[in-house]
Structure prediction request, 803 residues.
Amino acid sequence: MANITDNDRTEVILYERCPDTNTAPPTHESAQSDATKDKAISDVLRELINRPLFINLGYSSFGYNPTTRLLTDIADDCEVEVVGSSKDGLKTARIYDVGDVDMLVYAKVTFDATDEALFEYRPDNPLFFHIPLSDKFSHLPRVENKYLNASAVRGFDKILFGNKKREYSPSTFLFLPTNVVRSDFKCATTGILSYADPVQTSEHEAEENAIDNRHLFAWETEHVLFAYVLLHSNLDKLAFVRELIYGDKSDMETAGKVSETLKERFALIKQDFQRTNFNISDLLYFSSDQFQSVLDKAFDDDVSRTGDSLLASTVKPHGEYSADIVPAIRCRCWPRRAESFKYRIRIWPSTQVIDEIIEEGFRVVPKTSILDPIALKDFILSFSHADVKLVRLLPEEARIAYRLFKMCYKSAHDCLEGHNLLRTYHLKQALLWVAEQRQPESWIESGPLCGMRWIIEFLIICLRKMFFPSFYVEQSNHICHFSKADADAHITLFTKISSNPANFVKIVIDQEWEYMKATVPEDSYKKIRDPSYFAQFTWLELIRFYSYAHASLDGYSIDDMGQNMSKLKSEELYEKYLHDPFNTTPPNNIPFTSPFIDIQLEHVEIFLQTVTQMEIELFNVLDYPIDDEIIRHSNEWISKEKLVLYPQFNKEAGDQYGEYILNATRLRLKYYGNIYHILCNKLKAACFESSLSYKNQDAVYIIRFLKDLVMRRHLTGENIDDLLHYLFYFCHFTRIRHHKLVIGDQILRSIREFLHDARQLMTVYFNPRVVYPVPVDIGDKAKTCLGECFSRQQPVENQCGIQ
Prediction:
């Protein structure tokens, strides 16, 4: 690392007052030429901004990606704060790149000024430090018998964060094939769910364990609805059983959160539907003669002719949903190494805001230093909560300038492969440095092109000086690990972006078309490319196509059902979708090898007793009335002024979209329920037959289990019928795990999983207050609590039937 002088720091921090001396002033002729080119570039950016899909595709209004619920395992009593671009509105995710979610999980201990006074800041980078523990923290995990153990914090040590699951522990059952990434050299535990869109080309095939993105979207909608009706139709009963299992009383407030979640999810569904259609409208517009004439005036044609690697960036139609869960400790003071932040000369924000940030203090996060990392002792000063506060105070024009720059950078940073990369966090730090030295009005007056160049200018000066100061701790260098080659590669890319961002706009548009071409059949792709074809459909017709797409995932026909209304309640209509399930050979067809032990049978019987005697309605709840407020709930993400750009959009049809998607969702659930009912009847009949010569080993396992329940636990045919139908909610919960199987095999695999470990998996059934519950090991509670509370009784007459 090059030696950094105080003068270098001053020049970087106050870069406007110390312009780069290597830049010659422009001549009159070049200034005129630049002004003409900049006018053309500004026209392109203005058109891009008017099409808001390309500026911000994140769910920032809600502060999380809905799929985060599937990736996080956080204690009920832990305080969690969403930070980063998911919260501050700077997310620029695209359809094929949804980005991640950053969450701080707070420890139950806090530090104060007395504790901070003991921190030993690293001289090579004062953002990092070690924490000697005073006597009042003698109970905390230590290293070298003196310092707080950073690895224990990363591992969410129970002393710091409490018993994560109170009296019960997480199950080994994996709801989805997620990857969990932990490392002594990163502060976050990252949950990763690989997803894939359908593709038409072999080179874009996703990993085998990737979840189909369409199925995940449809399933999420269904299951939130299912959880809602199960909860609200059995509220008092489920609360009692949950108290028995989990040992804590549940209040009505938690039930309300499910309703709010459903409202939010339906609002997001509307947005997802709009995004799909607006995306096509936008791409058609960008292919139009009107926009191409604007782009041609700004685009550097010689870039494409020379085969510039910047324009060779590709896109894969699958990726990851990820959530970074970061353990953090609050410190109720301001760090000594950040004293200059209090007093330095600035134009923005106000003194009052600075005082509020300082009053809030900082966070301690177990992240290792890049240079000479010490995994057991290193911590970093975190100001992510302050970042959110400051970014939200910026004018929208500043955020647009940043998002445009970030979009350009992400679209082409493949060319930086082999180099250390600046992260989006660094780009955000540059935004704050630039904003501090400018009046907020200047962003509005100067426009997005100028705003982008202010940020780029600051970064280039930092890279040339090989010093990029932390916004809060000026002595700390964000690029202390960069080589000269790393810096030069970034300078080259940033210079190209600054010179002509219109080139990168073209990259973004080309990537969107490439994604669509890879995920749409060739004939459909050709039709979409024709503006007159897409424009012929009304908004209501597009909604109808959306419902057809949902139905196609399960292979049934909406038209088939619509034309056979009189047969909707007959098995004949659904039998054709269930192709001899017992004699198929599904993937991972694990044979039944060993007899069942008594405890397995006992837990299943206890589950049956509980549900039967509590009279918990499950199979017939699909007709439960849904609150109209949920259907109509909306969260507009495009202003009414910009909606006029999309002539197909119909406000009245859009307002009713909640009802359309609700009906489509109920149709899918009813279809699944009727297939499920037919299969249950086949299983019940088979358990009273002698033959077990079936190819599907899941069916063999289930039938043998049911036979044992009849022979050893004396269950009746009605008991078996009820048991199978009671598992409907659980099987739908696990349906997404097995969506690559045909529907009959999905159901059989899920029933087998439940019977194999009912002690843990019944907790999913009794915990619908959590939309995506995690199965837990409840030890002997199923036997001692539920088994004693509900003595053996004959069940009431079976009410489960075709829906």
